[in-house]
Each structure stands twice: as C-alpha cells, then as structure tokens.
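Changelog note: in this version the structure field was regenerated for every chain. One regenerated record is shown below for reference.
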Amino acid sequence: MPVIMGTAGHIDHGKTTLIKALTGIDCDRLSEEKKRGITIELGFAFLDLGEGDRLGIVDVPGHEKFVKNMVAGAAGVDFVVLVIAADEGIMPQTREHLEICQLLGVTTGLVVLTKIDMVDAEWLEMVREEAAAYLEPTFLGGALILPVSAHTGQGLDALRDALRKLVAEFRPRRRSDLFRLPVDRVFTMKGHGTVVTGTMISGSISVGEDVRLYPGETATKVRSLQSHGESVETAQAGRRTAVNLAGLEVDDVHRGDVLARPGSLFPSDVWDIELTVLASSRLPLKHRKEIHFHHGAREVLARIYLLDRDELAPGETAVCQARFTEPMAGVWGDRIVLRSFSPLRAFAGGRVIGPSGHRVKRFSEDVDLLARLASDAPEDVAEAQLALAGAKGLSFAELLTMTNLETKGLEKTLGVLGGQRRAVLFDKETRRYAGGELAERLSSELLEFLKGFHRRESMKPGVQRGELASSWGRDLPPKFLHFLLERLLKQGGIEVEQEVIRLKGHKVSLASDQAKVRERILSAYVGGGATPPNLKDVLEPLGLDAKQAAPVLKLLQDQGELIRIKDDMYYHTPALHGIRDGIIGFFADHREMTAPDFKELTGLSRKYLIPVLEYFDKEKLTVRVGDARRLRKRS
C-alpha cells in the first residue's frame, strides 16, 4: 500500500537537508530558495525501501510566513517526521506544525533530532528529554526519537531502518474509490504543456480519461502520468502523482484546485464541519468570525457560524458551518485547519461532515440533525444526509462524497437502510434516494389530503394526476411524487383510474345524478322567489342532507344562480337583485328606511326580513343607524 511521509518542524532545523541526505534529492528547486537558504515552496522526493517499494516524501517550509504552504503539503501525508534541531530544541513552528498535523488527523510518526554534530552528548540528552516530555500528550507521545547528522551521516541508516519498519507496520486510513488529486503545484514542461502535481488521496486514474478541475469544473483530459518520477498508465491513491493535462494553460489551474472525474464532486459555498479549538488557543472562537480556511492545498476566507452557542472555547468541539465567498469541493471526512488573522497562526481544525451543506437556523431542530453527520456509523451518516436533503433527495454520486464510502460499501449501506425503511430509491434511472422517514410521512399526508379532498369534493371521482401537486400544496420532484403514488398503489391505499387518483374504495356521491339534483334544487328556489323555501324542505324529497348537498349548493353559488344569505337560507339571484333594486329605488325619495318600511316595500315576513337586511348591511349597500338603515355613501 503506497504511503506518503511528510516533514514538520521549525525553520532552519534541517528538514530539507535531511531529505537530501536520505534520498539524494534536493527539494529546494527555486533559485530564491537556494539564494536565501530557506524552503519557501513544497518539495517532493521519494525513498527506495527495497523490493520495488518507494516512500513518497513531502518536504514543507518551516518559516512562519509560509505555514499556509506547510498546511497544503501536510494535508495529504500518512505519517510525519518531526524534525527538531539539537542546538535549538522546541521552537514556535515546532509547536504549530505539530498542532497542524494533529488537526489534519495525522496519528503516527517519529522524531529526528538533527545537527547532533553541533552539540555535545550531555546537551543532546537534555534536548531529547525535553522533546519526549513535550510530545508525551500528543500523537507522538512515546514515538521513536532518533539522533541524526545529515552532515556526517551519523544515524541515517538507523533512520532508514526505522522508516522501513514504520511503513511495514503502517495501516493507512480507509480510502474511497473516488478519484481525487488536490493540486499543490502547476507548471509547464517543454513539449508537454501544462502539468499538475499532488498527492492522490483516493481512487485511481488512467491515461486518456476525461477529468475536471473543481470547483470550476474545467474540462480536460489526462495526456500522461508520472508517479514517483516514473511514467505509468494508471496512477493509484497514496502516491505523489504528476498529471499532464490537455488543452489547458498554466493560468487555467490554481493551487488548491481538485482534479476529479466529471460529475463526481459537488462544489458548495456552505460546509457542515466538526470543529475543535486547540486547547493552546488563547481566545475562544466567536460566532461569525472570519478566518483563513485550509482544505487540501486550498486556502480561502470563510466565516464560521456557531449553531448551538455564541462561542467555542479552547479545547471544545462543536458541529458548525463554514460559509465561503466562493464554492469549495470536498468530501465527508476531509480534514481542515483554521488560522486566525492576528496572530496569523493555526488555532482550530477538524473535519468536513457535510460538503454540500444547507444553511440552517441557529438553535433549530436541524442542528441536532447536523450532529448526526459526525457519527462513525456509515448508516447513520447516510440517513442524516438524506434527511437534510429533504424531498430533493441525493444521487448515488452525491452520497459517495457525503459518506466517503467506496462504491460497494455505499451500495451495502443503502441496502441496509432500504431494508429497514430508512431510505428509499425513488428514481432508479438517476439512482436518487430520499429519507425513509420523509417518504413515510409524505405518504400519510397524501392519504389525509385525499380524505379531505373527497369530503370537500364528494361529487368528484378524485384528483387529476396532473393537478395533484398543486392541489396538495407540496413542491415535490415529479419522480418522487410518482414514487409515493406507486408505493401507495401497491400497498392498497389508493386507486388510479384514467389518471384520476382516489382513496381505495372511495365511491363518488351523486355523480350520476348531479345534473338532476342541481335542477331540482334550482327549481325550488326559482319558484320560491322573494320567499325561498327552507333548505331542509328542498333536500328531503331528494334523500339528501346539507352535508351531501353542499357540493351542489357551492356549484350553484359559483355559477351565480344562488346567493347564500345565512346558514341554510339561499335566494335565487334574480329574486335577491329585485329586492336590491327596490331598496335603491326607496332611497331615491327617502333618507332612512325602517324595518316596517322594508316590510311594506317587499311584503316579507320577519323570517326573511331581518336576514335580508343584515345581508345588505354586510354587502355594504346599507348601513344601520339606530333602528333604521341608510344608503351607504359610495367612496
């Protein structure tokens, strides 16, 4: 299994000199680096371990001004060699580099005390004890500490043996089969064109394949590949890799871009993250603080949104959100580092748990759901991601980035969730999934909606399929709505006939007699004129009650045939308009109209008189003043 080693340590402690002594490769390739005698950019080398195995090496700068370059290089390493100069001991960047490695999830390594030819044995032992004591509470606690002189060669063989043993015993982190190569260097080679290099963190790639540069999704093709200095047809994860890209200029590529296959990454300007503030930090992290955000080889500005508190104290861990000014492309489990503006140093870090985040309200129920994304159980992570995605759901490709599982592992996980009704595949063509709990809830809501629809529209056979979404008031993807209907159909909850959806067993009331019922009711009110019959007397001969007749009555009102005065009192529209015209005519010669005046005008009994007067008040034709009415003035 390929393994990448990274260096760490303070400036001028001999990291680059050590690598050259080990491998014969000078990692300082820039003229400015050679002129100033310090490492500025990342350097790369390899060490032959025998039997065809090679250890990839990333050499990082130690100067505090170039820590961002150090983070870019350390992001892809499997273990670290912490370099401490015997003549100086623990220094500021020794501490910061160690903390950065810890934040990046590095869990193993060894320590090299360099420049031992410049100190005596007593001093060397004092520095060794100091280093051992300082490192004890860290991931390098108890790690091997080797004294080495790159100048004289003392200790180099012991270091090579230690590295061979460390590589042989190393158990690399699980890598998905999703090809990703964060670009940490881009240059032009004469006769070849644009070349990018980086540590391939997962998957594999072959010559001739189409690829994309994310987050911009710039299209290109792999012209050729090199791994550890040798040309290869296919490059594997865990190796330093150089990729010759077709059709791109150097200016088209930037450090931090990620090379991946088309449609495999999904850039977002919001990430859900699990964040820990270093215990050594002097200040807490406050809500909405702007910081330098490091991911892979990329550095951007971001604001951190604390969702369940106003500040995150040193040593504390919380789930929060990073919001960017430009999209970022990541995968669940990717490590991140946060650096403050003043002082410019690493103070927090953690991992990505939602690379396609959704903006959530602080202190809302969604915050608890976000916390489930930090679970170590793949089923829980996938279920929580689906729950957060809602009805839109997630494709299989999106779930690969949101779980960091291998393809077979994700298929198995989704199979388990499907069997437990915790996830549903609602679009087989695009392999799109939704949460099982959401599907169950929407199914129940749909049945309730149909019940209500049948009550309101008892004379309609059901809902037209094309009108269901708008009538229901749910903005669902068509494929998801189709899935819900098909599942309810199989379960026997609904019936579908000629694109009409109804509850199982629903019978349409009065459907065959609708026209007849309408005519009988309308005839009764036309005959009643200004003194319409009681509704009950109209319906009894038809064998209906008010609830059953409600749809017909509503239809007659919608058609303008009947006007509802109150409760069960209806008027034929022309009859009521005749009364209205009489009132208007009365006011042509009178200022006020009393109830007796109205009775004399219309001949109505009290049964009708009061409801009709109140109706015209409500319609703002008249206004009551004491015991009389006046014609309401028009504005």
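Spot check on this record: The chain has a mean pLDDT of 90. The two ends are 87 Å apart (CA to CA).
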